[in-house]
Amino acid sequence: MPADRRVLPFRHTPAAPARPVAMVRALTLRRGGRALLDGLELTLFTGGITALLGPNGAGKSLLLRALAGLIPPDGGAIDLAPHTGAPALVFQKPVLLHRTVRANLAHALRLARVPRAARAGRLAELLVQARLSAQAQAQARALSGGEQQRLAIARALAARPRLLLLDEPTAHLDPASTAAVEALVRAAAHAGVKVLIVTHDRAQAARLADDVAFLAAGRITEHRPADDFFQRPESDEARAYLEGRLLL
Ligand SMILES: Nc1ncnc2c1ncn2[C@@H]1O[C@H](COP(=O)(O)OP(=O)(O)OP(=O)(O)O)[C@@H](O)[C@H]1O
Q1: What is the pTM of this model?
Q2: Domain boundary residue among 117, 136, 159?
Q3: 61 and 127 co-located in one domain
Q4: End of a domain among 111, 139, 159?
Q5: 242 with 173, same domain?
Q6: Which of 95, 117, 217, 244 has a C-alpha 20 to 30 A away from that of 56?
Q7: Cβ of 169 below 6 Å from ligand 1
Q8: Relative to the CA of 215, which ligand 1 atom is closest?
Q9: pLDDT band at 2 (very low <50, low <70, confident <90, very high)
Q10: Same domain membership, residue 105 and residue 125
Q11: Domain tally for the chain?
Q12: Is residue 39 part of a domain?
């Protein structure tokens, strides 16, 4: 990849110079004799939202899990910048405690070692951000799909991560619920959290993303500003995907 493609414009933090958050170098993951990720290269910079696009089975979820430290690489390396800390990962189907919304957030704040005295204020803040203040005493599992996803993201934000990994957070949500999740994701990015979001919703990627990384057959084939990507995809794989022709 030419060096100039790595200098990406970011809409959210124009004043702050972009610094690497995570560097993925020659990442390989093998299962059953098959390279599912195959020498994958990707650098994520501070600021803004990166959409990770690619066809079913390309390896997007695997990459997110590897970035979150859940899968050790079989080859290559994932380097997180010292300022990045532990990335937060939110799955497509949120795994919530069988407890109230408030208890879910309180638990996350305890796990994140937020000092006891600061927890109530931070919890109220997270409820407001996720627009769940009115549901604070509701059982988390009784929430709508969109509310559950907002709770899952708020819970992930409890630890004040610098890198938030979202795996298809709005799959199966209606337009209003999708918009509410997107607003929360945008707010997190505005607050300085680097977001990497997997989505199959091209319109969503165009609405949210500053840049797009395209993954096909275990490799990033291009990583460019979102507008450029959608107007002039460079790799054959990305062109085929955007035209609905790429099947792995
Ligand atoms: N533990 C595993 N063992 C063997 N194969 C696996 C394992 N986990 C994932 N795979 C395979 O790796 C490939 C990539 O899976 P992954 O879930 O990352 O794709 P994806 O790009 O997220 O797809 P989708 O868009 O459908 O969610 C798939 O072919 C999948 O079947």
Answers
A1: 0.91
A2: 159
A3: no
A4: 159
A5: yes
A6: 95
A7: no
A8: 21
A9: very low
A10: yes
A11: 2
A12: no
Do 186 and 103 have their domain in common? no
Domain that holds residue 126: 98-159
Ligand 1, atom 10, lies closest to the CA of 36
Which atom of ligand 1 lies nearest, measured to the CA of 32?
4
Give yes or no for residue 108 having a pLDDT over 60: yes
Which residue of 62, 67, 172 sits with most ligand 1 atoms within 8 Å of its CB, as the best mutation to test the pocket? 62
Check if 60 has its Cβ closer than 6 Å to any atom of ligand 1.
yes
Cβ of 102 less than 6 Å from ligand 1: no
> Which of 193, 225, 156, 189 has its CA nearest to residue 21?
193
